[in-house]
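Escalation from tier 1.

The customer reports that the assembly of three entities below gives different structure tokens on two consecutive runs. Tier 1 could not reproduce it. I'm attaching the input and our single run for tier 2 to review.
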Amino acid sequence: MTSAGNWIKSVGLGILAAGSVIALTATPAKAQGPLTVLCGVQEEWCKAIAVAFEKKTGTAVAMSRKSAGEALAQIRAESANPKTDVWWGGPGDPHLQAAEEGLTLAYESPQFADLQPWAQSQYKQSQGRSVGIYAGALGFVYNTELLAKRKISAPKCWADLLRPEFREEIQIANPNASGTAYTALATLVQVLGEDGAFDYLKKLNDNVNQYTKSGSAPAAAVARSETLVGIIFMHDGINQKVNGFPVDVAAPCEGTGYEIGSVSIIKGTKNLDTAKAFYEFALSPEGQATGAETKQFQMPSNRKAAIPPEAPKLEAIRMIDYNFQKFGTAEERKRLLSRWDAEIKAVAK
Amino acid sequence: MPGPQKFAGDVMRPRSAVWLALGWVGFALLPWFAGSGTQPTLAPPSPGPAGSALIDGLTNGRWWLLPAALPLILALVATALPRLHARQPAILLASGAFGLAWTAAQGFAIGLNGWAWGWLGALFGPLPLGQGGFGAGAALTALSFLFLMTNGFAGLGFMKGDRFTAGAIGLVLAAIAAFVFLPVGYVLSGAGDTGTGAFSAAALWSRLAAPDIWRLSCLTEAKACGVVWNSVFLAVMTGIATTLLGLAFALVAVRTGFRAKKLLRVLTVLPIITPPFVISLAVILLFGRNGTVTLVLADWFGIPVSRWIYGLPGVLLTQTLAFTPISFLVMIGVVQGIGPSLEEAAQTLRASRWVTFRTVTWPLMRPGVANAFLISFIESLADFGNPLILGGNFEVLSTKIYFAVVGAQNDPGRAAALGIILLCMCLGAFWVQRQWLGKKSYATVGGKGDNGIPSQLPRGIKIAAYATALPWAAFTFVLYGLILFGGFTENWGRNNSLTLRHYLAAFDLSWGPGGLIWSGRAWGSLFTTIEVAALSAPLTAAVGLLTAYLLVRQRFKGQGAFEFLTMLSFAIPGTVIGISYILAFNQPPIELTGTVTILIVCFVFRNMPVSIRAGVAAMSQIDRSLDECSLTLGAGSVQTIRRVILPLLRPAIVASLVYSFVRAITSISAVIFLVSPKYELATAYIVGRVEQGDFGLAIAYSSALIVLMSVVIALIQLLVGERRIGRRTATPVTLQEKPV
Amino acid sequence: MSIASKPAGVEFRNVSRRYGNTAAVDNVSFTIESGTLVTLLGPSGCGKTTTLRMIAGLEMASSGTILIGGKDVTRLPATDRNVTMVFQSYALFPHMSVADNVAYGLVVSGVRKRDAAAKAAEGLELVGLGGYGQRLPSELSGGQQQRVAVARALVLEPEVLLFDEPLSNLDAKLRRKMRDDIRELQQKLGLTSVYVTHDQEEALAVSDRIIVMNRSVIAQTGTPDELYRRPNSRFVADFIGGANLIDGELVGRSGGMATVALGRVTLSVPDPGLPAGGVLLAVRPNAIRLRTVSAGETGGDGIPVTVRKATYLGSHMEYGLVSEFGDLFVVDPNVATPVPAGASALATFTGDGIAAVAR
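Tier 1 run:
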């Protein structure tokens, strides 16, 4: 009376079990499979360089676009058993942080001599664990239509942002959340001195309508006329301009900081040779040209690479001698951010 | 025909023998480690051929794998020797338990590079070898141990001697331990981490008591309040708004002659199948400073343009849009459940319509109101997408957790501490709800049919309900119309000329020399998303309904605790789950990161609670004597479930299949850390587009997903079908939106 | 094919079922002979349903041994026992037709669909429901649903057929008919049946033997006649048939009979095996006859009473009496010369229907 029931019962449990087994082991991480790259720039660029590399070497690239914070969090969480091979793009700061924590691998490229000095400096500061692939200067983005309508002149200097006509019209990210905003904070500290910078930020607070969570969000807000002015990396602003929005960018006259978009090889990668090949490709003029091809207008780090005409001319921008060494450390970062929290965030609406 | 009667021992043998055989296969034949043989992560590399535990243990010096053979041998002896039949259950129990314990212990104790914990090295000296994560062999062997153990339990008379029940409880418990406890334990233990891996109560306390969490400065001066108060205030406001709207909709749907009730159904489903951020985006495009509505109001009425949408009002608006349908689904069940004869009785006692409503109808609806409020309250607490886009300077716990992890601060300990606070608030709300509802029973749906006719609403209430529900419904439809339309505009808000550009960018197809090329940018993530959703939905429904079966139909010790545990993953915000999964499953013994499995597992255990609730609600309505009868008629538990319970559970099955499928497509926060380059999900891709300001593609992709999900829901309805029992069907099971 | 039976006996050896500290069934032993219908009778909460469910395998004994057909089934789950049950709620599967319901047990046991359907039709024929196969259970009346439940249990030819208060959802008239039908079917097929009820009349009507349970233990086991005539406790005497309970004095015994003094009257009752001294007399209502007495007559063979209430019920009279031994309830077939209320009368005892039990 029960034999069929028993049989079905066994089969049922068996299927359940087999399902679990398959679920547990379905896709073990394959070694020497495609190269896994975390990508810190715009998705179009990520895709373009992956395709270009694949075309050149025949190695498939699995590319995932991650914000700098997400990428660092993932690399850190995976540190015991990395699943990622290369971290390509994104501000130099978190790359330095990863280097400081020993998450990345030192490697010297034969193309090192061709690189811009700021790219080499990233290499030195990270003890060889990271190198610059592009630079992007901090600046303003503003909505030309709205400015014209209100007959306000475009901001040219940090000091302009304190003008009363910009009351409640400026957006910048929250430095606790965004690397862009932290670069701005560190830049202001270097331009105005620490107390001067916080004094400035307190006054600026009256004109800021929102501390956004993402670094490039102010650019999108300016493009959509949600706000007049944003403090961003200039290439994010240019990107909106190229997308057809009525925006323009400017570099502050007092001098500005910049990010060094970097590349690092993850320590413990299972595809070291391919990872190195990608690293070299990212530094080569050919690899760096993929940026301009996808309307990304950062300044390439290889001196032999062609500079896109739309790119903000770094020579025309007054660049400060950004001290990545000092402002990249965890302590300094924590100290400045706590002070920002206490003095600016606490009085924000 | 009745077969020959068997002895207990005889019946026991075949099933245990099957599991024992599988255990041996797993131990001696299948590769023990994931990717064995080729995996270079085994450091130092194996000196001999890596393979099954038996081969590896004998030839490669991984001696610690060999003791797993002991319980297998013991169980074999107990099964093979007839003399031992009386003791067989006890022996199976002991060997299964030992095998399981040993497998887990060695897995955790010995990592990639030898001892995983320093004190083991101090105790036993250094270990020259490490090991990788569990593979097919280990998984099968562990399962075999688990089922030998539960068979032993059943043989000793536990669970009415039912091996299936015992096995199911064992399986569910083991799965919850591995995929809920383990990761949550990892992340919560980080709350007291001083940054060096050491635990410090002082660090924990300073994080939990931080002033930016608790300060009340907004009451006394013009400053921002602590993030906890923000979250609570928002959640209470959302709870009130959604409950009132839900009630209005329910009254309109059930108690008025409103014609377009089908339309209301659509309205309830829409927000559930909407990818996150989309409502926020639409709200910005309508009410932002440059939004359509804002400009119209400014042009026509001279209402000054402002940024009111960023901050509490905007988040409140979007959350109310998103959660009102859930509230409606809860309320409609309650309103329908009020036996009309109660109201008729009141009316025959000379009560007017209004008095009847006030004295009978409303008191009976109160538990539903409380339920709807609490669900919205919890949803709002855990919501991540809407505050992220529209929050402005208004900070809530869920976004703060996210930025504590990925922000410039990079402080996972702080995220864990905030996670604990959020978890406590959610669990507290659950607890309050259970206390409140546990004491009062307002159920009026009895076994007997109610021949009464629902009474019409009093005039005042009717007008109020229409006045609340209809404008809101219209608003929702306008919003969705705009979303669909937005996908076809060149650059919404600036250049409204129609184009297929965004759809082509996402879903272009072209013919290449090798045939069809999926050249659109969205195809990759779309295929992964569908694969993951299609795999996780039936698994979620299966695990959820199985658990519901155990909760409703079986009685065992610790059932209350078991039920609480299954609800745990519902109360944990997605971001915390995501981080915890990376922490827990990136290294041996369970190594899943970078695979599609981790996404599926994450969805299954995250969406399981809803499936359980649906199952529990539906199963409680099925008289227990039906299953008992089936058992006495010779059907086993499996057959009883398949032939009796499942056919009666169809509405619950539909609900959990639909819910888990949809959630797998629309979730974002839990998986944003789990997607890997190979396995990118649609929502993660869309969020990237939103960040870029590429709203056109984001909206086009989202619209496509909405259409896709509608089709799938219709298909599931069609395939699983309705139950046929010749009496009026029960209230549809509540679909619940969950934190993204 | 025809429906036969394969009856087997049931034996409980020191079986207990405990929930935490409370015992639902406490150290119970009994034997049920093959082919008989045995009723578990008792008030609600006495443990009779738990006992039944332990036979079915729906509850597991905490200790003791259960044998069916001489085989130990104590740890065997319900699925694997050859025992079927008719539930109080009928437990018809609402999503299956009547025929599918009846064929269910056969189908899940692996019987071919066609054979199962044929046998199900036969089963329905047996309970008088031929031709109802395609209906849904919800389309049948209560009595018809009951019959379907019986047919469904019968077609599996179980070793033991269990009934859990099967008639409690039916009206009085239908209940009487169904109970006769069940008894007839059981005797015709020679089934071993265990029947749970709290209705003593039903128990007396259908049973070969009755097991009376009270407070988790067996109070008494016996044939209906034995239980009615020779209850061994106040509980059984009161629960079965109802009885007037009167204090008496056991004064002597001889030849299996005992002499009990009730005031001036002495009665001869079956020997209860109790020591001499105070006993309780259980007097059935029909064991008392009422006689009017003229003033001054003492009547040495009866006890003087006053009629408090007299009810005419056509076939018999019912009296409420007041006496020095307390209130008495009497059923008297003499309707020709009834005693009016308020009259004084003499109550005499017939030989039968009186038992002595411990106080």
